[in-house]
Design goal:
Shape: elongated
Structural class: mainly alpha
Order of helices and strands: HHHHHHHHHHHHHHH
Amino acid sequence: MFDIKRFGAYISRLRKKADMTQSELAERLNLTRQAISKYECGDSFPDISILIEIADVFGITLDELISSGHPTLKEAAILECAVEGQDIYDDLDKQCISDIVNIAPLLKPSLLDKMAKGLAKHGIDISSIVSLAEYINDDTVIKLLENATYDTINETLLERLIPFLDGNSISIIFQKILEGELDYKLIRIMLPHAEYIYPQVEAAVLFGGLDEKALTILRDYESENDGLRHYDKGKER
């Protein structure tokens, strides 16, 4: 697993071996001294566009530089391809997900979006989508949901994911609840973000599509909101 602290310490050792100050290295890379300090402390990671420049400054290969962070083989391959602008995104599969999740904080949303679109073809688990949601664009999250597997979803995961979803995405999850694929208790997490499902829940219970206990969730929600019905029929996010 890529270790940003190890990577930063390696840059620090290279700089000292070259008898350079942080300011001198910053000038060579057209950065600030503070940026170099953060890299060396492992508080931030350089934009991948300058990794080749860093390697050139110290006369090492890109592979040596990336390897200093002790990445997995797949992490290293993804990072190198990203730096060199190679398009590997269509070749990604479900076995790459944990590697992508690990290095997601190091990559720009635009790069992760391309990777996610490749993964979308394979129907990745929703827990992985939750892990990526804060790093990728909202429309990419929605695209991943279309082919996602929901075996691991629970209230905690949905609570983390739902702020990134639009009305259509919430409807996908709600439909799976109606079809019995997901626990009706997830409705509790959905209501504050999609009050328009309130009458749909009532109707589903009335016609036997949902457990009657789902009404308890509605009543509790009403109670928490001063007994008011805060929804507009037909309203969607």
